[in-house]
Design a protein that fits this description.
Shape: rod-shaped
Helix content: over 70%
Strand content: under 5%
Oligomer: single chain
Largest sheet: none
Order of helices and strands: HHHHH
Length: 165
């Protein structure tokens, strides 16, 4: 039976792991553009801050909501960018697990061929990277949600702050 062939299992899992790693990279790739927009919006708000006695209540409320939402977006982006260093213990696939072995023990473990142990290790690593990708995309979603939430408050704040000058 083809499905029981270890090399077929290994190939399927290897491709699945590659797809999951691509999803992790895709999530990481969204950080710079959202971060740049968040920081630019915060920068404009900061550049237009008036003296303490020149604030109108609606301008202050709008600016505070915009700033807090943008800061929440930046925090969410930081959680995306934070490296995930936990993987299967003693893994021959995960970099953290690989360095738990001596070089000789690692070579012995992987050079014996495609064993059931290696297939299971690859399956666990695939699952772990799916968890990481899912977590990163959840934080990206929050970052973008906070950024979009801030936009109307930011626009109102900018309009008020700019016309008050």
């Amino acid at each position: 039976m083809v499905e029981s062939d270890p090399s077929v299992k290994f190939d399927v899992l290897d491709r699945a792991l590659a797809r999951n790693l691509a999803w992790v990279a895709a999530a990481d790739g969204k950080v710079p553009s959202v971060f740049a927009i968040d920081i630019a919006m915060l920068g404009v708000l900061c550049a237009l801050i008036p003296k303490a006695n020149q604030w109108a209540i609606w301008t202050a409320v709008s600016a505070a909501i915009a700033a807090l939402a943008l800061i929440a977006s930046v925090v969410s982006l930081a959680l995306v960018a934070f490296p995930r260093l936990y993987g299967p213990k003693g893994s021959a696939v995960f970099f953290g697990g690989i360095v738990q072995h001596s070089e000789e023990a690692f070579l012995k473990k992987v050079l014996v061929g495609i064993s059931e142990e290696l297939i299971e290790d690859l399956a666990r690593q695939t699952y772990r990277n799916a968890e990481i990708a899912s977590e990163k995309f959840a934080y990206i979603r929050w970052a973008m949600l906070f950024m979009f939430l801030s936009a109307p408050f930011w626009l109102v704040s900018i309009a008020f702050l700019y016309t008050a000058r």
